[in-house]
Amino acid sequence: MSDNVPELRVVGYTDRPNYHAGDQISVYVSALGRDVAYRPKVVELVCASSDIKGPGLQERETSFAMLQPKVATQQATLTGSFIQTSFTPSPDVSFYSLGAIMKPSKPMNRRQALLSTLRADDGTGLSLYLNEDGYLCLRIATDAVVIDHQGPFVEVGEWQLAAAEIDVAADTITLRTSRAGVNSTRSRPADMRVTNMGAERFEFFGTDLRIAADHCASGPSEDGTNCFDGKLEAPAIFYRRLTVVEWLKWEQGQPPADAAACWDFSIGMKTSIVTDISGNGHPGRCMQLPARAVTGARWTGTCHSWELHPEQYAAIKFHSDDQFDCGWDVSFEIEIPEDCPSSVYAIKLENASVPEYIVFFVSPSEGERCQDVVYLASTANYLAYANWGLFDRLEYFEPARGRLTCAGPEDVALYCNPRFQKSAYDYHKDRSGIRYSSWRRPIFNLRPDTRLSSFSGDSFVLSWLDAIGQAHDVVTDHDLHQRGAHALDGCKVLITGCHPEYWSTPMVAALQAFQESGGSLMYLGANGMYWRIAFSEEWPNAIEVRRSQGGSGAWKSEPGEDCLAFTGETGGIWRNNGAACYRLLGVGTTAMGFDFATPFYRNPASYDGRANFIFEGVKGEVIGDFGIGFGGAAGQEIDRWDPDLGSPKHALVLASSKGHSDNMLGVLEDFVNTTLAAGGTMNAKVRADMVFFETGFGGAVFSTSSICWPSALPINGFDNDVATITTNVLKRFLKPEKFDLP
User: Fold this and answer.
1) Is 167 within 8 Å of 95 (Cβ atoms)?
2) Residue 687 and residue 640: Cα distance in Å, rounded?
3) d(CA 547, CA 4)
4) Which among 61, 58, 117, 108 is positioned nearest to 86, based on CA atoms?
5) SS3 sequence of 723-734
6) What is the pLDDT of residues 459-479, one digit of tens each?
7) For the segment 276-324, what is each residue's pLDDT rounded down to a tens digit?
8) Is 13 helix (H, G, I), strand (E, B) or coil?
């Protein structure tokens, strides 16, 4: 590690992002290596950027109880998805047939378990697995001998039935692979290898069966090892020999009905439970959030909804780096005072190196009315970008920014600790996109002095509210999803941060209900309401994203996998799912670029009498030719007004940005073919439109259409035209006079 980058030595997380006064917080802390002495304290975060052009890092003391000094040790971290069942094979059987339909992923460079009963304590049992050379193998381990039997070679990326037959009486093992699925050409017969069992006795089969992992010899019982990368379907175990016809039917996803245990992954895809259809009552539970509702061996390509044809989605995709919960022990607990104000807080772990900040949010309790002004904390967005891998994307970002990218302590720590799952913008080890993100792990980039398109940039909105003395509450995306519009009861003006990108259907419905009740919105960012996501009660505080056709993102969903497993809804961008952003925000995402930001230039509509209040005290035609990080108020990601896509026709386009470079590229969904005219110098759609419109329900919407807008607020001590405009809008939105449609 470079001497120029301070070392992050202790990290942590809480059990969820959003709390209320009087709640208890469970805090999980681990050292990143040797033991670390630290002193925890709770601070209120007013500004999360130490940039000298702004107010600086602002922390406030709180009324939380004082916490005692502690020592962090390195905790074991759970990673890798699998299924834990309640099935243990009977030892009193003379013949076993076991296997599963599989589609292994690359790389095949390590052992990967398919079905395993190996005990964690003494290693006895059996395991059907793929070895590091890509061969199907079976391990049989008794208290006297451990024997690995090697079978046929398996094909990466192909559906095939991988199975074993154990003939106890004949002392033989048969390992077999055969092409499986509706698209199988059956170009070759089943490949089989027969070997002698070699064990003196065969009477103990270990512990409860695991699918897609072995039991871990050390660590928590919920941990798995030798986790499988790929898809599995129709795993089953029989206490007899199968006929040729039965093997053929199993290859097509229809194993015989008289199994000792057989799991159908097409049942209950919204849940963590897998169903045993043998009738013998051996259900399983998914661990560490593998992907359900994925195409299986029977997918024909004619259906794209798993709810319409669940049998075509009877597979589960496992990853050795899936991570829903690190599984750490609770380090300490914190009681939130009954009189704790709604705000943004952090548990600061002070130590001899870089302090850790474990961010959490306190929102108004159920039944408690909000203050007139509410700030919407983008907790869904923080999850989507959680542990975004800078070092994995330098080949993209350095050319896009036209300059070298600087790494911070959080980037180095994440790179040096790959056991923590990365973001929904990154890839699993098998190069498939990461579609889930959970709060129950350290989030290295949710802390002060990280990128200005996320938490640090958002905090300029909070510091602006503080600077003008405006009382406010904080409500999170999670609150909005869980409680709907009731989370905003009492609110007159809802204010977003710089980048409210990820929205669930209940969140969108809540915002619409808020506006229809007369509430006003200040959308102080861009790229808002872009991707549809889903939450699940089965997997609390995790989000799911599927990047279906259309949309500018880091990866694309596999064919047939556009629908979210948590809800069954079509994933992808909201523009393709009702264009909610244009209707509710007035604008939608138009371009992305990361080299520099530009100013806004007033349009004739800004002189309309409806907009007089917005520009009181503003001189000149240029707005925001300054800003922290990118040098202007219009940059990074920007939105445009477009009535053809649903923007209100009566909206005033007050100002628009100009002068973007060709690194500011129009979004993919605006193009039907390849083009050289995508960048800012050639594409008229590459602009940020500042928009105002009346909702028709007494409220109004003001949209800045730029991620960089909040980063321009604090320049010159919040004495600038960007801050003036923003304050003017807030003051008018708070007045009791309603807005009428023009």
Assistant:
1) yes
2) 6
3) 37
4) 117
5) HHHHHHHHHHHH
6) 999 999 999 999 999 999 999
7) 999 999 999 999 999 999 999 999 999 999 999 999 999 999 999 999 9
8) strand
